[in-house]
Amino acid sequence: MASKLLMIIVFVFDLIAFALAVAAEQRRSTATTKLDNEGNYNYCVYDSDIATGFGIGAFFFLLAGQALIMVASRCFCCGKALSPGSSRACAVLLFLFCWVTFFIAEVCLLAGSVRNAYHTKYRTRFFENPPSCETVRKGVFAAGASFIFFTGIISEFYYISFSKTRESNGPYGGETGVGMGLYK
């Protein structure tokens, strides 16, 4: 059966990544427009930039969990051929969904972290429109957190299904061509 230690480690990594993504959503930076001391210019003042660190941390914990699962399963494509059956078909589908959700989660986390770290540096005169203080949209890190959750569940099921297939009857040794019998 599947390695319980590996599954626990990957679960803990995914749980940490999820918690960091939720924390990043809660602590994303906000901006206010301030007037300089002389009263000539408006500029943006940003509060804490901790959400960028949380987002990057979630990015790397999710990456580590995915790497462990893929190394343990030899990325599904390396190694001995798996015997055909429903477990192999399920493993193939879960492998594909696992990578899709992983990619979406990583893009959300990376885009949210980069956007959260970006601070507008220009200023405007006091009689002009105030500067646009750009911040990350609400929900980017939350979307990343939800896809971390999906990736964690799917990758665990993928590894279990892969392990069942790998342990059943050994490698597939069947004939690759069409079986033809003698005609009588």
Task: Record the SSE blueprint.
Layout: H1 4-26, E1 31-35, E2 41-46, H2 50-72, H3 86-117, E3 124-125, H4 140-167
Antiparallel strand pairs: 1-2, 2-3
Overview of the molecule:
By secondary structure, this protein is mainly α. Helix 2 packs parallel to helix 4 and helix 3 runs antiparallel to helix 4. It has a three-stranded antiparallel sheet with strand order 1-2-3, with no helix packed on it. Helix content is 58%, strand content 7%. Strand 1 and strand 2 form a beta hairpin. It is found in: Endomembrane system. Keywords: Membrane, Signal, Transmembrane, Transmembrane helix.
Task: Name its key features.
184 residues, mainly alpha, 3-stranded antiparallel sheet, 58% helix, elongated, Fiber protein Fb34, membrane
In quaternary terms, these chains amount to single chain
Structural class assignment: mainly alpha
Largest sheet: 3 strands, antiparallel
Tally of DSSP helical segments: 4
β-sheet strand percentage: 5-15%
Report how far apart the termini are: 46 Å
Q: What average pLDDT do the residues reach?
A: 82
Order of helices and strands: HEEHHEH
As residue ranges, the low-confidence spans are: none
Q: Order of strands side by side in the largest beta sheet?
A: 1-2-3
Helix percentage: 55-70%
C-alpha geometry: elongated
Radius of gyration using CA atoms only: 25 Å
Number of strands: 3
How do you describe this structure in short?
The longest helix is centred in the middle third of the chain and has 32 residues, at 86-117.
